[in-house]
Amino acid sequence: MAKRSVAAGGEIPPSVFAFLRELARNNDRVWFNANKERYVAEMRDPLLAFIAGFAPRLARLNRRLVADPSPNGGSLFRIYRDTRFARDKSPYKTHAGIYFGRAEGRDSPAPGFYLHVAPGDVFMGAGIWRPDPEVLKQVRDAIVAEPARWKRVRGELDDGEALSRPPRGYDAEHPLVEDLKRKQFTVSHPFGEKDASKPGFSERYAAACRRAVPLLQFLTEAVGCDW
After folding, report:
1. In the predicted model, what is the mean pLDDT of residues 133-157?
2. Domain ranges of the chain
3. How close are the terminal C-alpha atoms of the chain, in Å?
């Protein structure tokens, strides 16, 4: 089967959403193995082409973030689910995830940009999601140290996990105590599926990422990394 790639406009082809819809109805290894070539041609390779095409725009946002179109270990997350500790034993994800992170890899504490692609659910994500305790403390300490800057850059943070009480060691009367209670610091921007499939989506996605740059710079420096 011939390889399909994204068009010059940097859109996500409808074939990606069509394949994901079929996969949701047939989430088993027999079906997937029988359709592996379709997965590669209609979903994986178009998304890798999107990643490669986004690289110049990403470099203008931050030269330390990487758009890696490698089929394995690059910016595109694996479609295989880790079911070892999950109640849901479905073997495949019914969405695609793309992460533009640091060259050090996904273990870096510094934040990056994320693109979620699913039928009816496309969004840009940015920030730090579920950090370990040390990183979480670094961010909280940075908020306390630079409250005015934090208020300028935080934007509309996503709802997420938070403590019911102020974290130990922080002033319960601090004016930013609600942010200090947070366990994650992310922002997102939704796109329609049709919007993602129209030419120019790569630039619209880049524009959403650009609006999150002040937050990411704050978080990057908070965890001791250069922006």
Report:
1. 97
2. 14-222
3. 43
